Amino acid sequence: MSCNVPLDFAIIVDTSGSISRRNFKLLLHFIRNLVDGFQVSEDHTHIAIIEYSTGASVQLGFNDLPGRTLTKNNVYDIVKRIPHKRGKTYIDRALRLANDEVFTLKGGMRDDVRKVRWFARDINGMSRKAVEPPVRDHPKCQAIVAAYGSWLCTRVSTILFCVNIIS
Predict the structure, then answer these.
(1) Cα dihedral angle (145, 123, 18, 151), rounded to 10 degrees?
(2) Each residue's pLDDT tens digit, 35-49
(3) I want to staple 53 with a disulfide (CB 3.0 to 4.6 A). Which of 14, 37, 87, 130 is the partner?
């Protein structure tokens, strides 16, 4: 069963040293399963992927797989190639990159669909200051739960999974 609601869905991946090699492999496997739950196509869910560590980079933009090339298998191939950089953990850089380059019309964002940001990261050392300013600064942010700013979060062991719905 998959979600057939059209979304612009950004996956923000912690590639820092706070994630062990074993847990990084598990995280990539989890992301693959997450993508599997969506109907990925030109008319349905578009996927973007941002990795972050000391820096942040877009691994897949919303317009990088146009037309029929936007498939789960092509997204899986990109997930497999996400580098484990093992640097420091600066999620604020990834969130700013999402705001400045991914969730823009130039970045392939669609005006007429719901936008979602999702991330998972090691909870140790997570700073509330690092997450909230980029979320607050996004003009279309919408609080869904007063759980962590406008993020809905759940914790499994030491991994924090968060989702943020943008209008």
Answers:
(1) 10
(2) 888 899 999 999 999
(3) 87
pLDDT of the residue at 130:
46
Closest CA to 121 of 8, 23, 21, 10: 23
Please say whether the dihedral angle defined by the alpha carbons of residues 20, 21, 23 and 27, taken in this order, is positive or negative: positive
Per-residue pLDDT tens digits for 80-127: 999 999 999 888 899 899 999 999 999 999 999 888 888 776 655 444
Is residue 159 packed enough to be buried (19+ CB in 10 Å), middle (13-18) or exposed (0-12)? middle
Distance CA 47, CA 38 (A): 10
Beta-bridged to residue 163, according to DSSP, are 118, 152
Rounded Cα distance, 69 and 90, in Å: 31
Give the CATH superfamily of 7-166.
von Willebrand factor, type A domain (3.40.50.410)
Where do the domains of the chain lie? 7-166
Three-state secondary structure along 113-145? CEEEEEEEEECCCCCHHHHHHHHHHCCCECCCC
Strand 114-122 versus strand 7-14 pairing type: parallel
Does the predicted TM-score (pTM) go above 0.90?
no
